[in-house]
Amino acid sequence: MSSITISRAPYQLSGRLYTPEAPTTNYSPAIIIVPPSNAVKEQFPSTYARLLSRRPHNFYTVCYDPSNFGASGGNPRYLEDPNARVADVSAVVDYLMKEVRRVDKQKITVVGFCSGGGYAVAAAKKDWRIKAVATVSLVNIGDLFRIGWEGREPVRKHTETMKNVGEERRKELRIMMRPVSSSSSVSGMSITGVTLGNGLPSTPIVDRDARRRSVTPTTFENGLPSTPVVDRDARRKSMTPTTFENLNYRRPSTPTSPGFHKDLYSTPEEEEMGKVIPFLQPTSEKSHVDLQELTEYYTTPRAYHPRAENKLLQQSLPLLLTFDAFDFVETFLKVPVFCMIGGMAGSRWHTDRLDIMLRRGSQSGIRGVDRMVVVEGVGHVDFFDGFEEIDRVVGDIGAWMREKLAKL
């Protein structure tokens, strides 16, 4: 593995390059790992990049921090700009074509996770140097912000959001004209509404089997997502409070977590930038199980990383609300698409919608997603750090990519 810098004028992206463990030819294909929003390369993207570079897959792989987040450049900080995220992918394609001599320039592909899956689709329809796209737990981030996790919220409620965000624009313009230093550490703070034990936030522990039995999967039927039916009593019985003392997570990380401290989003420096809000809002037992697990994954020792700060500049909201990763896919997405989704994932309707759009765009009526894999009994987040789920993704996507690229 090599730490790399990827030119993305006027700044650079921080990334990691993994070389094929046992290349079978002089030139090897490449995979770009597109991370979810709020994720950094040190979390699960590097796991997938490393495994896909090993036998029997032997890809060049790149994972990276997106613009304005993590160790990558870009101001203002914490701005989630979908168009910039799509441009990041093309910048990595540029890097592979210019800087990595043994990459097969005709066999560059992308694999996107969660909202990174939506960005991967959007990049593939714009940048035809990308020859195949795979998604895992796909989320179209525009749809997510417009109509919610389950796809049932009214879009019209966001008219007030757009009005309020406009009032913050003046503050953000001031900070855009000069560099922004990174925020300070916040370890050791008390967290409103959360019990701390040895510096670690408490959160419910979910019995995954009970959780999966209590949730009916979301599907995309007749153009509209159906609403999952959750047995609230069964789920509550499966959850036991804890302070994270003596717990063995599958992906242990840093020993501290900022959680959702109210003062974390109101430092003097960030007030100049405009309002900074949590990327992941605090959850309760009434929240969708996927959202509870996303919060657990990113803000507890399960996978917390200090550069995944759970901060979102409020000025991001208009950009997200007016973005659709699937616009014109029926016309411009010409490469094969692989989708893997958990059978119990509340986000499954994003994958179904993409498949429907691709089918409608084909004169034969049967194009759709080239291969769709639904893993029963698995939720949205399980692909991030579940050993069996990771093995399944790496094996299926690696083999599928090799099959499609062999035909080029």
UniProtKB/TrEMBL annotation:
Residues 41-385 form the AB hydrolase-1 domain. It comes from the Eukaryota. Coiled coil: none annotated. Gene3D superfamilies: alpha/beta hydrolase. Pfam families: Abhydrolase_6 (PF12697). Belongs to the polyketide transferase af380 family. This is AB hydrolase-1 domain-containing protein. The lineage of its organism: Eukaryota, Fungi, Dikarya, Ascomycota, Pezizomycotina.
